[in-house]
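Why Mannose-1-phosphate guanyltransferase C-terminal domain-containing protein? Reviewers of the renewal asked for a concrete example.
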Amino acid sequence: MKAYILKSNKKIEPFGDSPGEAIIGLDTLNSLQKKILLEEGISFAMVNGLTDIKDAGEHIAFGEEVYFAKNLLQDFIKFSRKSSTKTVCTVIYGVFTTRTLINLQDVVKSTDKVEYKLYYFPKDDKRSAQIQNIFFDLEKNLEGFSIPHHMSGNPKYSIPVINNPIIQINHWSNIWSANLASALLLVAHLRNSSKVKLFFTALFSLSFNKWKIAMRLSKIGKNCDIHPTSYIEGSIIGDNVVVGAGTVIRESIIGNGVYIGNNITIETSVIGDKCSILNGHILYSVLYPEVFTVTHMISASLIGKRCFVGSGAVLTDFRFDGKTIMVTKDGAQIDTKNTFLGCCLGHDVYLGATCVVAPGRSIPNGLHISLEKDKIISSFPLKSDFLRITEK
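Here is what the prediction returned.
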């Protein structure tokens, strides 16, 4: 079998990167796609569109912007072969499509289903003009946290924990959701470990407590300096990582050369190579490589390469009027249908102390933002001048 990757000419704002250059779980989308194909023994070629494919044999085709798990591709090919006709990958509308911000993806939508740019073609002699939907129900493993009704209209904010996600990368919010899907994919794989592996893990843990077992299931890289009072659960830690005293890391992916200080909490997030985190709580967020942050909280946000987030900077993720978050795409305002979503900082953005970014906003590459000059003490009068001012 061969795969044809359909090139995309679009750029993802505010980064200006192509979808294939988007970083998902520490690697580019292009690299992830090709790695899965090679593992499945599928050769591949880049083409401009479906009309450029002149292949009479069995093959698949997908957009350069499509992120998918290996399990999903395997099942899609298996079910498609049974159909003996052309097929398209289709997901039933639900929590998964909402949480992955389907309104920002360039997919084919109807009232109850979503068709992604992932296609299967049987041999030429078995093809027909009809295209059949291969349906995936991604609502089976929903988890979440309790939340007051006045905040979201529901008693629980649900999140799918699955091993077969698919997301099209057409907006920065899709990069964010694909990264969270990759972190939760890790969690799903750990939970689906064989009973034999879990049994021996429990023996080594000297406990059948699920949290102690989750600690044992984490993967730690080489040459790491991890303080004995830190707690790491269900996560992947890269090489040469420093983790300080009292730090908690749960269900997250940490890149190489990351420095994480004392008493920091990182939950369900992806932290890129060579980031430095000296303060706070990072929740459902994605930090591209070489981010430096000292702020107290980063929630549901995407931070580009080489950014600085100053002390007290606030990346808000909730609207006080109770409405869902709006974002901008191609100059138009689009409703995400989500109550919670933070913001996006482009590459090389510096956000000064106590700056506040509204939910759903994106900041262009290279901007350095600080408070107004009259709110910053940049100089101080001489002692004699100061005395004259106070005497008045």
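Residues 193-206 have pLDDT under 50 and may be disordered. This is the kind of structural detail the renewal will allow us to pursue systematically.
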